[in-house]
Backbone:
DNA sequence: TTGTTTGGTAAACACTGTTTAGTACATTTG
DNA sequence: CAAATGTACTAAACAGTGTTTACCAAACAA
């Protein structure tokens, strides 16, 4: 019975076709302009067809959210060769800031928007992508402790604190809340703050 | 010519009437359900009337945003009596977390949403409310330095780092990104992380 | 008492996500 | 092979959204 398999394959291809079109529009025009009708137009199908492959827009956005995490984890992989765990942690921070500032729409989707989380909640699942990313941080923090960098030993709390700081920094920047400083030294300010935070980390 | 003044007063009263209705709906049903038509219904005017008093929805949301900052600054005022500057800084952090977790919709409006910032940008103004709140932090940090709490002396960078951390913490919580830890210890985790951050601050 | 200004609105415009009913074609069955 | 079933797809509608336009009636100024 190759037919059932072919149909399964075709279904997956259609899901992928929709996701690719959604991704293109999302990256080019941002979230606000990514409408079901626009996606349907791009793939030359009717809007209703999309609902045969994704239960709602939340699920579709969750699909993009998954891809965004893959992309971020890919960039995190660059830090693996760094042997010193603290230097690895610092570079991970740099990569995080770089990813956020270079992919504002993706960052929004991953860490701020409700839509992908609602899709997860609806399926009674856990935020697996977030957990994996956080685990990557936990591992590096644990390595730092092993290497004697921190007196503090609560990996979870240290990781949470680091993530909070860097997420806050990126979010303030992305949401235009740094424009209150009239000068155009936003990135410089971020760099200075990050340096101070690294100093603080060294002391715990 | 009392008529012009009366008209001015009536205009201001109408703006206030709209804002009160908007605020009520915003607090009760959240941002997503705060539509122009719903506000119009509440005050028993047509939707078009609202546009005679606010140029668009962004301006209306900016009005709520201003009130939200007033509310937050009011709660910050509670820490003024604390004489020790570092204890005052810590309590300010507590107040910030409390305000954010107790007023998720307001916090969103103040620090995450685009709408109020677009209203500001449209009028070629600066984010005054944010600046005033940040100044409150700067003052306390400066007091800490004066009292010899920090070796570091860059008030701006220290303040930015503190704000980034605490904003990140609150945002992770509010945007449901802490649900990845399956347990129900979200607030406890926040408290633990905050304690660690205070420890880190003491060391700079 | 005219003429003008002003406050307010009904209706329309151009969108949005989503559902329903129905069609045309592919597949399975007798 | 023909009839019955299943499936992929869509046009149209539903119930919203922010916003603009054309118009009306009442208040004001001359």
Residues:
């Amino acid at each position: 019975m190759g037919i059932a398999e072919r149909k399964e394959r075709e279904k997956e291809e259609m899901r992928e076709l929709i996701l690719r079109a959604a991704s293109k529009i999302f990256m080019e025009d941002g979230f606000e302009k990514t409408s079901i009708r626009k996606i349907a137009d791009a793939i030359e199908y009717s809007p209703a067809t999309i609902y045969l492959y994704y239960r709602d827009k939340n699920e579709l956005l969750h699909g993009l959210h998954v891809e965004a995490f893959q992309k971020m984890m890919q960039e995190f992989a660059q830090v693996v060769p760094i042997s010193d765990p603290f230097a690895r942690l610092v570079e991970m921070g740099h990569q995080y800031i770089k990813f956020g500032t270079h992919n504002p729409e993706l960052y929004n989707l991953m860490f701020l928007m409700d839509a992908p989380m609602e899709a997860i909640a609806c399926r009674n699942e856990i935020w697996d992508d977030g957990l994996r990313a956080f685990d990557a941080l936990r591992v590096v923090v644990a390595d730092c402790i092993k290497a004697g960098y921190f007196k503090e030993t609560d990996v979870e709390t240290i990781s949470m604190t680091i993530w909070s700081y860097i997420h806050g920094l990126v979010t303030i920047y992305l949401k235009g809340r740094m424009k209150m400083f009239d000068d155009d030294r936003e990135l410089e300010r971020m760099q200075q703050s990050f340096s101070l935070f690294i100093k603080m980390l060294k002391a715990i």
Observations:
- Chain B has ten helices and no strands.
- Chain B touches chain A through 43 residues (CB under 8 Å).
- Chain B has a mean pLDDT of 95.
- Residues 7, 14, 45-49, 52 of chain B lie near DNA strand C (CB under 10 Å from a C1').
